[in-house]
User: What shape does this take?
Amino acid sequence: MGILRRGHSYDRRKLLSQASKARARGRLKKAIRLYRRILAVEPEDPEVHRKVAPLLARSRQREAALTSFSQAVSGLMRRGFEDRALGVCRETVQYFPHRADVWEAIAQLELKRSRTSDAVKALCEGRGHCSRRSQRGDALRLLRRAHELAPDDADIAVDLARLLRRSGARLEARRLLAGFAARAKGPPSRRVAWARLCVDPTPARLLGWLRPGRSG
Assistant: This one.
C-alpha cells in the first residue's frame, strides 16, 4: 500500500479503528484527518468516503462532503451495491435536502428495484424542499418526472399545473389539467376544478369549480 509521509507505514485497519473512536467521541476534526489519511492511499474507497462525508457536512465543509457522498455512491454502484448506494443517497439529502439531483438519483434507484411508488414519493419529497423561486426549475423537473410515473395522481397534477402557471407556461398547464380531467373516473375534485379555473379563468371553469361534475 505504500508509505505515508513522514515515514509512517500505512495500516488501514488501525486508521479505521482510530477514526471510529474519534468519531464516537465527537472529535470530528481528528476523525476526518484519519479518514483522509486512508483516502490519500485509497482515494476511491467508497466505504471510507461514506464514513467521512457526514462528518464533513457536520463540519460545514459542504463541497468536500458532497464530493465524498458522490464518490461513495459511484463507487458502490460500480461494485454492484445498489442498496448501499441508495442508503448513501438518502443520507445525503438529510444534509442537503435541496439537491434535486440526489432526489432524482433516489427515484432512479427505487425504479431499478421496481418500487415506483417509492420513486414517486422521493420525487415529491424533493419537490417539497425546492420551494424557493430560484429552485423553481428543479421543482418542475421533479414534478414532471413524478407526473410521468403517476399520471393519475391529482395532487401531483395540480401542483405541477400551478407551478407551470407561475412559470408562465399557462398553455402547458391547461393541457396537463385537461388531459388529467379526461382520464379521471367520475367528476373531478373541487381542487382540480379550482386549478383549472386558476389556469383558465372562464365562466365555464367557474361553473366547473362550483359544480365539478359539470366542468368541461
Remarks:
- Confidence is low (pLDDT under 50) at residues 1-7.
- The CA atoms of residues 18 and 34 lie 7 Å apart.
